[in-house]
């Protein structure tokens, strides 16, 4: 699943209106080298959003919600950025008022709060 996330957490960490995400099961994430740093933050939903980032440059690599088994991969960290093609918006109501949303995309159903 490829989407733009407009949650306030993604805005804060990315410095952009939305965050380009590959949403995948955590079990499908395979680390081939290195060991990312980890920072756990309580999300607006009350769940723990566990961020993984590079200890050399600070780039956010992915975040994961362990209890849901989901990972949100930073789509623009991959070598071929042209492969990312969002089909959905997540939480578009949280987008800044100056942001021009692609309204042709479906709206991803919000993940229920705890
Ligand atoms: Zn988000």
Largest sheet: 8 strands, mixed
Low-pLDDT stretches: none
- Number of domain units: 1
Mean pLDDT comes to 92
Strands side by side in the biggest sheet: 3-4-5-6-2-1-7-8
Helix-strand string: EHEEEEEEE
- Our measurement of the CA-to-CA distance between the termini, rounded to an integer number of angstroms, reads 23 Å
Q: How many strands?
A: 8
Overall form: globular
**Do you know the CATH architecture?**
Alpha-Beta Complex
In percent, how much strand structure appears in the residues?
Answer: 35-45%
Ligands and ions found: zinc ion
Architecture overview:
With 114 residues, the chain is mainly beta. The chain has one domain: glutathione-dependent formaldehyde- activating enzyme (gfa) (Alpha-Beta Complex), CATH 3.90.1590.10. Helix content is 6%, strand content 35%. It has 1 helix and 8 strands, in the order βαβββββββ. It has one helix spanning 8-14, and strands at residues 2-5, 19-25, 37-42, 48-53, 60-65, 70-74, 88-90, 106-108. Strands 3-4-5-6-2-1-7-8 form an 8-stranded mixed beta sheet. The two termini are 23 Å apart. Bound molecules: zinc ion (ZN). Zinc ion is lined by residues 5, 7, 9-10, 19.
Give a nutshell description of this structure.
With 114 residues, the chain is mainly β.
Which short descriptors sum up this protein?
8 strands, glutathione-dependent formaldehyde- activating enzyme (gfa), 114 residues, 1 helix, binds zinc ion, eight-stranded mixed β-sheet, mainly beta
């Amino acid at each position: 699943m490829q989407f733009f996330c407009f949650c306030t957490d993604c805005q804060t960490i990315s410095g952009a209106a939305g965050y380009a995400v590959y949403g995948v099961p955590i079990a499908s994430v395979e680390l081939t080298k290195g060991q990312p740093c980890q920072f756990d933050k309580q999300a607006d939903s009350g769940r723990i959003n566990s961020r993984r980032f590079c200890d050399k440059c600070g780039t956010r690599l992915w975040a994961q919600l362990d209890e849901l088994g989901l990972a949100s991969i930073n789509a623009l960290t991959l070598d071929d950025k042209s492969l990312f093609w969002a089909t959905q918006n997540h939480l578009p109501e949280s987008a800044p008022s100056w942001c021009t949303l692609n309204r042709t995309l479906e709206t991803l159903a919000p993940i229920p709060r705890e």
